[in-house]
Each structure stands twice: as C-alpha cells, then as structure tokens.
Amino acid sequence: MPAKIKTYQPHSHYHPYRPRGVSKRAFHQVYWPYLPLILIIGLFLGLGLRNSALPQAASQPLATTLSYADTMQPNRLIAQTNLERQQAQLPTLRFSAKLAAAAQTKADDMVSRNYWSHDTPDGSPPWLFVARQSYGYNKLGENLAAGFNDETSTVAGWMASVAHRDNILDPGFSEVGFGVAESQNYSSAGGGPMTVVVAFYAQPNQLAGPKISLVKGAQVSSETTAAQLAFANLPVAGVATNLAVASLLAAIFFWLSRHVRSFRRAVKQGEKFFFRHPLFDLGLLVIAAIGYLLTQTTGLIH
C-alpha cells in the first residue's frame, strides 16, 4: 500500500512567512519588548520638560526668530534664581535696588544701541553701569540673555552653560539685580522681536567708593537649544544637544536602511511595510521628530 504524503500550504496569503493556523497576535508580540523602552524614553523626556522647552519648539518648529516676552518680570527672575540656589543648598540672593538700576540701564542701552556684548560699542566694561549707581563690591558677575519666552527658560538657559551657572551658584555672591528690555528688531542677536535680560550678581563692599574688579561671565555668545533647556538640571546637560543630533541621525539612517532594502519586496508582496512594523517604525519617526525639535534654538546667552 503506497504511503500517503501530506501536503501543507507553505504560508498564508496575509503573510508569506506565517503558516496557516498561527494567530496574527503571535506576530504582534514581537513588538512588546519595545514598549518598556518607549515608556522609559517618555518618562525621561517628561522629567526634562518641566521648563516647557519642547512645547515651545514644537509650537514653532520652523521659526527663524526667538521669543518676545513682554511679561518678563525681574521679581520672578529672582525667585527662579533663588530656587536654583536652594536646590544647590546655597543661601538665597537678596534684591539690590542699585544692582537692579544698573542692570536696567544696561538692558536699555543694549536695546537702544543694538549691541549684544558685555562691553558697550565704545568699549566701556559692564562694571561701569554698576559704578554709576555708587555701588561698592568685592566681586561682580554679569549674565546676559535674549530671546527666551519666560523667566523659567531664561534661568534654565543660564544653568545649561557652565560659566553662567557658576555666576548663579557662586557662594560668594549675596545680592542680585535684573533688568529687562524689549526690542522690536534686535538685529545684533539675529533679528526679530526679542526680550533682553541683564543680571548683575555681586558681593557688596561697605567702602565708600566702588571697587573695580574683573567681571565674571562667558566672553562669547552661545545659542541655547531646547535640549539644553529640557535637561538643564540633569547630568547630561552638557551633551544634550549632541545626543539629540546623534539620535536624530541614527533614527533616520536606520529607518531609511530598513525601508530602502524592503521597499521593492514590500511592493511585490502587496503589503505596506509600515503596517507590518507599526510600533517600531512609529518609534523611530517619533525619535527623529523629537531630535529635530530639541535641536532648535530657544534663546541666546552671553
């Protein structure tokens, strides 16, 4: 009696590599290990978004000008600065009316003469504005900012820079004053409407006349990205932008490599590659989009 040979359908019509009788859910389970990774990334970003940097970038992803904040208040800048010092277990800074007057004069001068520098166009150093208020000091520091949308992002921008953070967290400083000025077209820092913020930090001197000393602060202007704002108080602050760019490029390269190799096969099989790999593809596209948004400039510091 001849042996009976059973014949099997090698695969189903829906998926060329799925035998008949195997549930589609068995193939969807391959994506489940990616869910914890997506949750971890979401949690990490959520912790960094307390300064609202990413929503700002997302609302204007193609913007060429920086923010104009006509509601920026010096008292809120002081509160945000002291919050950073309290978190570092440092004494809070006292408000100084003379430092505030000096900072306001400097901010108004920067806007009226359209310059973006610690020194004025005629070469006068920043301590000159303080000296004109008859304020004596042993040590003086200055931070400049332009284009941030609120007090929180302004201080976060300074905290993302080592030199500016050193001014905020210097234990030798005990007084502070802020000045805020608005420009409809601040071309010296890139153009467009911007809010300029000047901060003077000082250790007062009780002598009659002001003591001139070196002003601490960054000597070159630098851009602050959304990534640096989002992770300003995290250990990765210094490399936030580089990580965002690397993630963006890696996600795009990997996505393209997978799709270029599979495009012809996907068309021939009559299946769309995206629907075969929904979570993985969506995750790569989200990472690429977030990477782009995080590299957008949100303000300038000096």
Report on the architecture of this protein.
The protein is an alpha/beta fold. The chain has a domain at 74-204: CAP (Pathogenesis-related Protein p14a, 3-Layer(aba) Sandwich), CATH 3.40.33.10. It has helices spanning 24-28, 34-48, 53-59, 74-87, 97-113, 127-131, 151-159, 162-168, 226-230, 240-269, 273-276, 278-294; strands spanning 94-95, 137-146, 175-183, 194-204, 215-216, 222-225, 297-301. Strands 1, 2, 3, 4, 5, 6 and 7 form a 7-stranded mixed sheet that branches. The longest helix is centred in the last third of the chain and has 30 residues, at 240-269.
Topology:
Elements: H1 24-28, H2 34-48, H3 53-59, H4 74-87, E1 94-95, H5 97-113, H6 127-131, E2 137-146, H7 151-159, H8 162-168, E3 175-183, E4 194-204, E5 215-216, E6 222-225, H9 226-230, H10 240-269, H11 273-276, H12 278-294, E7 297-301
Parallel strand pairs: 1-3, 2-5
Antiparallel strand pairs: 2-4, 2-7, 3-4, 6-7
Q: What is this entry, summarized?
A:
The chain has 302 residues and is of the alpha/beta class. The protein has helices at residues 24-28, 34-48, 53-59, 74-87, 97-113, 127-131, 151-159, 162-168, 226-230, 240-269, 273-276, 278-294; strands at residues 94-95, 137-146, 175-183, 194-204, 215-216, 222-225, 297-301.
**CATH homologous superfamily of the domain at 74-204?**
CAP
CATH topology label of the domain at 74-204: Pathogenesis-related Protein p14a
- Biggest sheet, open or closed, and with what strands and sense? 7 strands, mixed
Can you write the helix and strand succession as a string?
HHHHEHHEHHEEEEHHHHE
